Amino acid sequence: MAWEPDLVIGMDIGTTYSGYACLFKDEFRSNPTNIWMHKWSQFSYKTKTCVLLKKNGELHSFGERAEKKFSREFNEDRDLAYDNWLFYNNFKMVLYRENFTAADDCGNRYKAEDYFSRHTPLKDVMSKFIQGLKEDCFQRFCKQRNIQINEDKIRWVITVPAIWNEDAKSVMRTAAEMAGIPGDQLVLALEPEAAAVSYFYLPHEERAAMGGLGHVGDKFMIIDLGGGTVDISAVEVISVSPKKQLKEIIGANGGAWGSQRINDAFAQVCRDVFKDNNGQSVFKDCKKADLLKMENLFEAEKLKITDKDDEEWIEIHLPIDMRDSILKDVRRYPHKYDEYFKIMQCYYS
Ligand SMILES: Nc1ncnc2c1ncn2[C@@H]1O[C@H](COP(=O)(O)OP(=O)(O)OP(=O)(O)O)[C@@H](O)[C@H]1O
Ligand SMILES: [Mg+2]
Q1: What is the Cα–Cα distance from 334 to 257, expressed in whole angstroms?
Q2: For residue 37, which of 29, 46, 25, 28 has the smallest C-alpha distance?
Q3: Which is nearest to 131 in space by CA: 63, 38, 64, 82?
Q4: pLDDT tens for each residue of 217-272
Q5: How far apart are CA 287 and CA 124, in angstroms?
Q6: Which residues partner with 180 through β-bridges?
Q7: Nearest C-alpha to atom 12 of ligand 1 is from which residue?
């Protein structure tokens, strides 16, 4: 008899946020949307895509916990943090490069970069991150349901951007296997395809609100606006019963146009605007931890912006050392206050 899973565990590893979800096969039959997910915060089923390793490469933590721990260690003693820790974020985008080959990950071309710009093969970092998600998922799910999971009966699904090439996908597969996920129990699913399939299982009202699509012959487009990439694909419904079947009608499209670009542009504006008289960025000596903090503050404000907003300004309270760097510059050259103000105004008008 063909192998059948008892439990499906899905992992969505995003550029900025990641999460996991579990569903027993029996529960899927009675209620396919009865999916168990851990709520990481009041608003989110995902945590930050970042990972903290000990110097020997062992996993310490991942997600927001890793970021907090590393920031604390860094603020206490930068040199000790350098000696003891490896902290990685924004590593998924390494896999989305033109002409990326799996050999590049082991060679010197493309690697994950830690906070202090030290390089490690991406698959090693990705595998530690997957290991963190996997262990965390087991621990929380088993505890909540008070069950033991038979690992041989799990179907693992990891979603990947449709626009990745085959080599990038194979690095993800290797990373998952290194994290202890058996290759023959693992499926890599394309992110927009997973979204299209899940649409079929939404409650009737939700589907109606989205146009009630889902009849044979209906065609629809899925646009996944992520942190790193934008993935666009289009499918046609081929059959709904007894099996639900979709056909791809346009190959995956998209690019590195995710929302992280807005954060990068903000950081660039800050570097361009706040320059000393020698043309050097006022932020050049700022701690990376402060730059990270500033990005987090900007990110939080960005998420509050809506299309109904008529407020033109957002307010960010800079970390104290950054504020001092700017103030030092302004005190030295008082005319610059007006200059800075004018430049910022013209960037935002
Ligand atoms: N209201 C908003 N305005 C602008 N950007 C937003 C808003 N809400 C979320 N974002 C951005 O969306 C991104 C997170 O989306 P998502 O979780 O889909 O990305 P991801 O899965 O981490 O990335 P990817 O799928 O590209 O690898 C973040 O960069 C976040 O800043
Ligand atoms: Mg995503």
Answers
A1: 39
A2: 46
A3: 63
A4: 999 899 999 999 999 999 999 998 888 899 999 888 899 999 999 999 988 888 88
A5: 27
A6: none
A7: 227
- Please calculate the CA angle 257-261-262 and round it to the nearest 5 degrees: 120
* Fold of the 7-190 domain: Nucleotidyltransferase; domain 5 (3.30.420)
C-alpha distances in angstroms, 213 versus 200, 239, 249? 9, 13, 16
The pLDDT value recorded for residue 94 is: 87
Atom 13 of ligand 1, nearest CA residue: 227
The whole-model pTM stands at 0.88
The DSSP string of 262-273 is: HHHHHHHHHHHH
Domain spans, the chain: 7-190, 260-348
Strand partners, 236: 219, 247
DSSP class of residue 67 equals: H
Query: What are the Cα distances from residue 147, in Å, to 25, 138, 344?
Result: 15, 10, 56
Task: Tell which one of 17, 232, 259 to mutate to probe ligand 1, the residue whose CB is within 8 A of the most ligand atoms.
Answer: 259
Rounded to whole angstroms, the Cα distance separating 162 from 92 reads 14
Give the Å distance between the CA of 186 and the centre of ligand 2.
19
pLDDT at 349: 44
Give residue 21's identity as a one-letter amino acid code.
A
The string of DSSP codes covering 98-122 is: TT--HHHHHSSSS-EE-TTS-EE-H
Cβ distance 127 to 178 under 8 Å?
Answer: yes
Question: Which of left, alpha, beta for 45 (phi over 0: left; psi -120 to 50: alpha)?
Answer: alpha
Q: Find out whether the beta carbon of 228 lies less than 6 Å from any atom of ligand 1.
A: yes
